Amino acid sequence: MTGVRDVRDLKYRQWFNGADVDGDGVITRQDVRLMGERYIAARDAASGSETARRLTEGLDAFWTTVIEPMDQDGDGKVDLREMTEGFRRALTDPALYPQQVGPVADCYFDLIDLDGDDRVDQAEFGEIFGQAGNVSPEDCAAVFRELDLDGSGGLNRAEFHQALTEFFYGDDPAAPGTHLFGRIAD
Fold it and tell me: Can you say how many angstroms the Cα of residue 121 is from the centroid of all Cα atoms in its chain?
């Protein structure tokens, strides 16, 4: 049985692997920006669009307020150990989600919701998490079905936020949001 700390460490490793866009084993401000650019490009969104601007600003704030403070040695790079320890310290209270993760999550939701119907369907989810998030098509389909709590065939904004809350703050290895950035081994 996987313990609480182990579950979070596995989730954080999944996120780290996606956030280390250039694959050099560390996350930098440039990686965080490239992550946003990757999502914008996957959506063919104009880099000057309002959503792209909000995402870029949100990711800059996410870097400054959440990731950069994890850089224990001040080298401008956050390795897996620093990030895991930093997430353990920073992401302890789900009540802080609206300040810590919520604004960036809203930007991603708007970017993923290409047709603007205020819901993310399975195709949109698979495209963005598969193409830009490096999650396998099989994992995308399975995770989407689990996240679609009301069985509507689409994730509304509340379901999306719940998934991210479960991912960043949750301890339950069986929670649907645990596998948002790819299946973790339990």
Answer: 17
